[in-house]
Amino acid sequence: MPAMSQVQTFGELLDAVDNLSREDKEAFLEVLQRRFIEQRREEIAAEVEAARQAFRAGECRPASVDELVKEILT
Q1: Could you read off the pLDDT of 9-65 as tens digits, one per residue?
Q2: Sequence-separated (6 or more) residues with CB below 8 Å from residue 17
Q3: Distance separating alpha carbons of residues 15 and 13, to the nearest angstrom
Q4: Which of 3, 8, 19, 59 has the lowest CB atom count within 10 Å?
Q5: Cα–Cα distance between 40 and 34 in angstroms, integer?
Q6: Where are the chain's structural domains?
Q7: How far apart are the C-alpha atoms of 38 and 44, rounded to whole Å?
Q8: Exposure pattern of 2-30 as b/e (b: 16+ CB <10 Å)?
């Protein structure tokens, strides 16, 4: 696939994708989905690590579902 010039806006990106062939659109979608999934995995891993560090530092404690719901509702 030829290199694409830098796209400045969301609308320009949509226009650029509209100009792709059907096969290139499918490939673009697959790549975008893989990147989104990987980015989300990285975010979740970072959140888990932060939660583990907070727990080790004594900044949080284990709680039951009932305790969490009670805390949310008060």
Answers
A1: 999 999 999 999 999 999 999 999 999 999 999 999 999 999 999 999 999 888 899
A2: 25, 28
A3: 5
A4: 3
A5: 10
A6: 10-73
A7: 10
A8: eeeeeeeeeeeeeeeeeeeeeeeeeeeee
One-letter amino acid of 61: R
Q: What is the DSSP string of 11-60?
A: HHHHHHHHTS-HHHHHHHHHHHHHHHHHHHHHHHHHHHHHHHHHHHTTS-
Q: Report the predicted TM-score, pTM, of the whole model to 2 decimal places.
A: 0.64
Burial (Cβ within 10 Å: 0-12, 13-18, ≥19) of residue 56: exposed
Task: Return the DSSP state at 63.
Answer: -
